[in-house]
Specification:
2 copies of one chain form a homodimer. By secondary structure, the first copy, chain A, is mostly beta strands. The first copy, chain A, is built from 1 helix and 8 strands. Chains A and B meet through β1, β2, β5 and β7 of A and β1, β2, β5 and β7 of B. Chains A, B: Keywords: Amino-acid biosynthesis, Cytoplasm, Histidine biosynthesis, Hydrolase, Magnesium, Metal-binding, Zinc.
Chain lengths: ~120, ~120
């Protein structure tokens, strides 16, 4: 059986988790998990991070409704990074954009390549 | 002009960088960069991480030939995570698998879902 204790957490007890849209392959965001949030994510099927600013479990979309339904959780070779394939409801980013990675460096300058979702 | 100093590095001066296959959308790996490796990556078009174990710049594929040609570098909303869209030569993982995320948690157990590339 999988045990979150066998992951490699950093000195703060956290592991980065990349959320990828299971259908489109778009990388939506990266946030952090602790052992408890990994367990909750697997138990509930609802992606649950650890909020470093609030120092609390963060059920993604709990207040905004922009939930992430877990399709599959994967572990990398070093066991120190997770990849969550998700069904994302609405925008993943708090700026109302589909993805947090909406800034691109092009010809040496930052460009915004994605707009907020209307009524998101 | 973009200045790596305007990114949010952690207390070790590092920022996580997700490498995604620009053509297929597959998430290949996650590794770390410091300001110098961000600059080198943009200058050379060859993805260059910071090896925490060797405490040195790590030009991906320099010894293996499994290089990552940078297509585009993106920054997330908090400026504390990078997404590199890349053209990956050969496998990205040191286990000779295309991606480092070859272990999946299915029905509570870890399963290997990807095999090493032959002759990779």
């Amino acid at each position: 059986m999988f045990d979150p204790a066998n992951l490699q957490f950093d000195r703060d007890g956290l592991i980065p988790c990349i959320a990828q849209d299971a259908a489109s392959g778009e990388v939506l965001m990266m946030a952090w998990m602790n052992a408890q949030s990994v367990s909750r994510t697997l138990q509930t099927g609802r992606v649950t991070y650890w909020s470093r600013s609030r120092a609390a479990l963060w059920v993604k979309g709990e207040s905004s409704g922009h939930v992430q339904e877990l399709v599959e959780l994967r572990i990398d070779c070093d066991r120190d990074c997770l990849l969550a394939l998700v069904n994302q409801t609405g925008p993943a980013c708090h700026t109302n954009r589909r993805s947090c990675f909406y800034t691109s460096i092009r010809e040496g300058s930052e460009q915004t390549i994605m707009q907020p979702v209307e009524g998101g």
